[in-house]
Amino acid sequence: MTGLTGSAGCFDAILPYIVTILLISSIYAIFALGLNLEWGFTGLLNFGHVAFFAIGAYTTVLLDLWGCPLVLSIIAGVALAGFFGFLLGIPTLRLRADYLAIVTIGFSEVLRFILLNEEWLTRGPFGVYGFERPFQDVIPYQYYNTFLLILYVAILVAIYASLERLMHSPWGRVLKSIREDESVPSALGKNVFWYKIQSLMLGSAIAGLAGALLAFYLQYVSPATFKPIETFHAWIIIILGGTASNRGTIVGALILWTFFSGTKFISRLVPLESHQMGAFRMIVIGLLLMLLMMYKPEGIFGKKEELALSD
Predict the structure, then answer these.
(1) What phi-psi label fits residue 136: left (phi over 0), alpha (psi between -120 and 50 degrees) or beta?
(2) DSSP character for 37?
(3) Cβ(77)–Cβ(209) under 8 Å?
(4) Within a 10 A sphere around the Cβ of 80, how many other Cβ atoms?
(5) Cβ distance 52 to 81 under 8 Å?
(6) How many CA atoms lie within 13 A of 114 on its CB side?
(7) Residue 13: inside a domain
(8) CA atoms within 13 A on the CB side of 54
(9) 90 Cβ partners below 8 Å, 6+ apart?
């Protein structure tokens, strides 16, 4: 009986940790699915994806604080992220891939500095907190993260199923043909520029939704939450799971955040100072990612023909 009681106590202690990993993984899986639509299926080299993450988060929480119903705040955050994707796409999607990458990362940094300096709107470096969360008055606090996990997984499944259906539709086949050689769909009478705009808008809207979900989980957002490294986390997730694979993106998110969380326990095995441990963890994570990519360079669910960047 003592052993069973001890096992139950151990499980109760580790359960919140598992829920946290799954929560963050589901948020970043949604975030990366938007980028996978843009890059994996359309060939758009977006290095500023985090900007739409931030737009969705800030729009949602600010509108909520200003008295807008929470559902409408979320819809507005998603719509505004998609709208900014549309605005950014008009002048940039005629550029070559490398120029597009530079413009998008520049846009994300401009937005971050606006969030940092316009304190009258965003509270600047102090961040935004005290906003409402879904059903917070109904769900007991001790079960709230479990509720969020169920909600976020349901949203993730819905987005995954929708993207899979889209990618197997005529619209999705046009996007894939644009990725391979845009002169072919253009010769067949397709408006390649407009299809690219649609892909960027939808991918940005998905990132905006992920931003709102992140805000609800953290209960706080600040410009420091949306640094360029967040975009490259999404890129790592896509490459790990396999380019142009939606299920691979979900698995890649789970693997990456398991690495991030699991390496915290290294401190019990390696006698390093606290200021050294962070750098050592990054080394270990980097080595793990390298080993995985050496074994599966195309990603877990990827195809080798998807490896090359666009010319």
Answers:
(1) alpha
(2) I
(3) yes
(4) 20
(5) yes
(6) 11
(7) no
(8) 27
(9) 197
pLDDT-wise least confident of 217-226, 238-247, 279-288: 279-288
CA dihedral 92, 97, 100, 101 (to 10 degrees): 160
Q: Total domain count for the chain?
A: 1
Contact 128, 58 (CB under 8 A): yes
Tokens of 64: 């909520």
Q: How far apart are CA 220 and CA 275, in angstroms?
A: 25
Q: How far apart are CA 50 and CA 224, in angstroms?
A: 12
Collapsing DSSP states into helix, strand and coil, what is residue 91? helix
State the CB neighbour count (10 A cutoff) for residue 130: 9
Tell whether 257 is covered by a domain: no
Backbone angles phi, psi at 128, to 5 degrees: -120, 135
* Separation of CA 161 from chain center: 17
Quick count: other Cβ atoms within 10 Å of Cβ 183?
A: 11
What's the gap between Cα 198 and its chain centre?
A: 19
Q: Which range marks the domain in which residue 115 is found?
A: 21-226
Asked if the model's pLDDT at residue 286 lies above 80, the reply is yes
> Residue 113: which of 230, 234, 226 has the closest Cα?
226
Q: Please report, rounded to a whole number, the percentage of residues in the chain having pLDDT higher than 70.
A: 93
113-146 pLDDT, tens digit each: 999 999 999 999 999 999 999 999 999 988 999 9
Mean pLDDT over the full length of the chain: 90
Q: Kindly state the tokens that stand for 198.
A: 């649609």
Quick check: pTM over 0.90?
Answer: yes
Q: Is residue 259 part of a domain?
A: no
Q: How far apart are CA 34 and CA 25, in angstroms?
A: 14
pLDDT at 306 over 70: no
Q: Residue 176: which residues within 8 A CB-CB, separation 6 or more? A: 41, 167, 244
